[in-house]
Amino acid sequence: MKPLITTVNALKEMATGLSREAIPASPLLFEYTGIDVEVLLHAEDTADEQRIFVIRQSDTRERTVPRHPGDLTSDVLSRVASFAERARANGSLTLPHGWHQFKRNNLITFFAGQRGGPEGRRWIAELLPGAPPDIVFWGMARSDRPAILEEFEAAKPILPPGWQQDWRSAVEKCAEWVELSKRPETTDVEIELGHLDQSTTKGWSYEQWLTEVTADQHSFIEATTTKSIRLRGPAGSGKTLALSLKAIKEVLDARESGGGIRVLMVTHSWSLTTAILESVESMGKGQLAEIDVFPLLEIAKLISPHYANDKSGYSLAADDSFSGKQDQLNEILEVLDDFVTGDWVTYRERVTEDLRARFDSGEPDDRKALAWDLLLEFGSVIGASAIFPGAGAESRYAQLPRAGWMLPLQTRDDKRVVFALYTKYMENLDARGTLTSDQVLADLLSHLETHAWNRARKDEGYDLIFVDEFHLFSPLERQVLHYLSRDVNSYPRVFMAVDPRQSPSEAFIGVAADGTRSSSGAFEASIGDVTNFELTTVHRFTPQILELIKHVHHEFPTLDLGADWQIDFAAVESAQESGPLPVLSKAASREGEDADIAKAVHKLYSTGRIALAVVDNRHWHRFSELATRIATSGKFHVSTISGRTDIDGIGYRSRGLVVGPAEYLAGLQFDVVLVAGIPDMDVTRTATNERTRLLSLLYLALSRAQRQVRVFVNDDDGGAAEVLGRAVTNGVMKQEQGSFV
Ligand SMILES: Nc1ncnc2c1ncn2[C@@H]1O[C@H](COP(=O)(O)OP(=O)(O)OP(=O)(O)O)[C@@H](O)[C@H]1O
Prior knowledge:
Blueprint (H helix, E strand, L loop, with lengths): L3 E3 L1 H7 L14 E5 L4 E5 L9 E3 L19 H15 L13 E3 L2 E5 L10 E6 L7 E7 L6 H7 L8 H20 L6 H4 L13 H7 L2 H8 L5 E5 L6 H18 L6 E5 L2 H12 L9 E5 H8 L1 H4 L6 E2 L4 H21 L2 H5 L4 H8 L3 H19 L10 H7 L12 H21 L1 E2 L1 H12 L2 H10 L3 E4 L7 H7 L12 E5 L11 H16 L4 E5 L2 E2 L4 H13 L17 E2 L8 E5 L2 H15 L4 E6 L5 H13 L5 E3 L15 E6 L8 E7 L11 H15 L2 E10 L7 H8 L4 E4 L4
Parallel strand pairs: 1-3, 4-8, 9-15, 9-16, 10-11, 10-14, 12-13, 14-15, 17-18, 19-24, 19-25, 20-22, 20-23, 21-22, 23-24
Antiparallel strand pairs: 1-4, 2-3, 5-6, 6-7, 7-8
The site of adenosine-5'-triphosphate has 20 residues, from helix 8.
């Protein structure tokens, strides 16, 4: 088999869980078959990219590599990418302890994945001369003997001579492909059909909307802007729409009174940014130059001189706060695994019992929960206070006042262990030459606190700040917001749309959800008086879907979210016409469920836009494969959303299937939502915070639907979760027998 040449960007995209079959449908990956090698590129790659060679022939019994990167697990791919990044960073190459490296000249070997796991094999890699160094992964060996490098060196094969020509052709073809895919798909009639009907603004003008909005929305739009406003409402109650209308109104009013105004609309992700931009533009007022719409991270990139002038060569992996969190979480998990098997013993006896139990637990879910806590601690507490590892840093950290939303750390020893992890985390980032989104935001925060910004904000700051999906912002991100206003003499005027039930990332653990609550209090103290507006009519979905959502809502344990964050669901009504009862389809096996989903797509495709929302990320791989199988029939337009994929344009396609983890679908809506990948969530087997997270994702998935919901489960994965069983008993869902195979 020909060797493969690929890049860090391409490997990271694959590591989001994309199956190899999904590559042809991916808007970001490009495959090329040359004479001597195959090439896998990312849309952003250029000819100077650091190259990663993967040799796939097995010329000895010891060295084997799967035929395709898509056949490797996500953690193996992430490790390869991480290795390449470390190799290109300045200074000597350092690898985490847990990789158990051996070196010999330019050769290096390290564990491909977790030691003892199914991937407990070692890569044999070689750093080629050059900066950044290209890397050859010569294969994987099962052996754990340091001598393997010596043996390998004695019989080292050579790269096929024609690879350079193939690489150049691949880069050229990839650039052509990127250009082509930028062109509007004029031949795709589907886009033209009912184009505007499908958008959030239904093609209505601004004036038309003002007559259509509910009284609640109207009072928000008309409300005075002398104070900040919190707009609360459940999913689909028209928060985004009301924010957009109010932003337009304020601009038009300012124009009429002859005053200039600068309005900022801040989001958490690029997907929602695009949706808002499109809806503002579709309301017949043209492009309003006074309104800027950006994900918060983009604002940091635009105005933070630290970022703009950074010549260190460090790169920021993430595009928005959403993908930023994902990357950081993976890095912290790696640091944690390494730490627990190494230095942890020296701290273990001294920390408080509760924290000890969390470190000691080998359960992947507990590890994830701890990693999430650390993510907030590193970004919103330590990083936000500009504390970097070094002399005196730990004692500065120990003296920071603690707030209710932070990870409970009771003693100095508890803090010591957290700081040790922070230090390792920062070393890892340095070794990879990467910046995290939290670091960029922490730098922005320190810039916003300077005299320079105090002067500049009069021109560059904003009069009004609108924040959509406020519930998704971390304490650090919230702190940034109130410095973005123009007038230093009065409290910033911030208009926040909040749905406390949608907290896909925050709800990784209870403490994080708690953090969302109390940090919001801290945030609001810094912006003065806040008026509340409640939206109690949902416009997106039918009364039948609303009933199912209310049912899921009642399953949330009330412990984790404070009383003032509750939505009074009893008072919520749907303004939509009746629709079909949501269906629960139960198959005998995974294959059966796949077949049922494919059948549902066939049957419902003509009714409008369909989403397949995967509740638990751990099932994502399986459904991304299914998406590819459905796409290869050629009858359907299928888009797969993985974490880093840009989903521009998805908001406008009037037909088509979008497949993605539920959390990435926040802010989008579909005629039909197929929901799958729901674990059993049994009380005895699932920690409360994990249940909260999964129920929150289920809520998010269901609330994307306008007309129909179909939930799929199978016996291989334990059948229907109790919450769904009770939904059937209560008559808010109807059960259907799925495939028997
Ligand atoms: N007053 C209204 N009359 C009719 N339709 C409306 C009204 N308000 C909103 N809608 C429609 O309801 C749908 C949901 O609106 P929107 O996306 O603004 O809700 P949201 O509260 O931001 O939802 P989520 O938080 O779930 O993303 C959109 O299709 C929008 O056009």
